[in-house]
User: What shape does this take?
Amino acid sequence: MHLTDKFGREITYLRLAITDRCNLRCQYCMPAHGIDIVDRKELLTYKEMYRITRILSELGVNKVRLTGGEPFVRKDFIKFLETLSFNDKLDQINITTNGALIAKHIPKLEELNIKAINLSLDTLQADRFKTITRRNVFTETMETLDKLLESSLQIKLNVVVIPGLNTDEIVDFIELTKDKDLSVRFIEEMPFNGVGQKTDDEIWNMKKIYHEIEKNYNNIIPLKSKRSSTSQNYTLEAYKGSFGIIPAFTRTICNDCNRIRITATGMFKNCLFDDGVFNIRDFMRNGASDKEIAQLFINTVHKKPKNGFVAEANRRDNVSESMSTIGG
Ligand code: SAM
Ligand code: SF4
Assistant: This one.
């Protein structure tokens, strides 16, 4: 049995939010005072997360990304990784993190066969880091980046392009790929900031980001990406790493979408832009069997909206929640 939607897209990738809590307060993700976090008992337990992942892996999901909030702020996250790594149906367990807490865990992550780390880093300047994240942990994050570069883990740097804050660093980030084997991905800013929408003309979309890069380089080589890749990828002649642009807001990648999301409270999302289809936590806590849960996943995936615009149009409210509650 597989998870396939009515447009023939097969779902093989789960993004699971470990928590809604975070140690940073990034401007594009939440207001300065943070978001209203839920009561601890509303969060999925690790046991529930393990069960969900096991059932989904029996339905063909072979890749899991653990995100949040900040996954490493949840107690016993490393123990959960150990347990999850016993599931041999999963080819890849990846993590998205802000990196501030993880330098010491890197050897353990290698040992557990974690494949890739997406490290979120929006600036290479200490003072700006503090402005963007509203926290003073630039040194810790850079230490993590250095240690990751020495490790066997694949690294992707996630850079949200924030008008007025870091657009002048696009070239600095690309220069990191000159002699480092890493992939920098520029992400269009989305209105998931706990407050609501910015006007469209403020947003640096894919075209504008690419134009900025083109202005500075004449040796851009497009790379062939996997069909389900979220980014369009490029390298520069003689550069070791690569860079890409993620059209998170302009949503030109939906045709090949292979993913679903489960939030930290168990809300199942067929699309980043929908407002949640059903709560798997309540279903499990009401005694559902594995078979019933699997059937619910199959039926729900079948209704996956064609793209992020359709999903947004079907929402009850406007987009305004924080990415930290969705699991970015
Ligand atoms: N705390 C971890 C981190 O920052 O990597 C994981 C969760 S965070 C919500 C996941 C990703 O979403 C990060 O790369 C972050 O930069 C991105 N993100 C958060 N808010 C966003 C927004 N409004 N627009 C675009 N990307 C956003
Ligand atoms: Fe925290 Fe990640 Fe959101 Fe920044 S982007 S506030 S690190 S959840």
